[in-house]
Amino acid sequence: MRSRFVWLVGVAALSAWTAGMSAQGNAAAQHGQGEHHHADAAAIKNPVKSTPDSIAAGKKLYDAQCVTCHGDTGKGDGKLAASITSGPKPSDLSDAAWKHGSTDGEIFTLIRDGSKGTGMRGYAARMKPDDIWNVVNYLRTLGPPPAKK
Asked: Residue 84 has what pLDDT?
């Protein structure tokens, strides 16, 4: 009886996982190539106040983790950008057009999770959440003010 229960729980878990993967696949297929927004991510509020210390910490992390692709001033012109021959080039982080949304939460989520189908990998395993928020605060110094939501 117990083994049958364990088996049923396993089947249910596999079914739920498969459904989730299918939903993610559908979401990815509907993701679109142009500018778009992520409502769930946009709702995330930045818990790290943008102070000179936070911005300096974000710049230090940016210089260590991001500059090779996005460049010193965030224009997408880092040393590795020229070597990208397929897929999208690194984003210009200094302009007003942010493909995946321009709220702090959307930027945080993109840095944390990366962007499928691009060279933008996720940094969740490399940076603590507060570190990512510091990078978000630093990125705000590179371009126009954040969009009002």
From this structure: 87
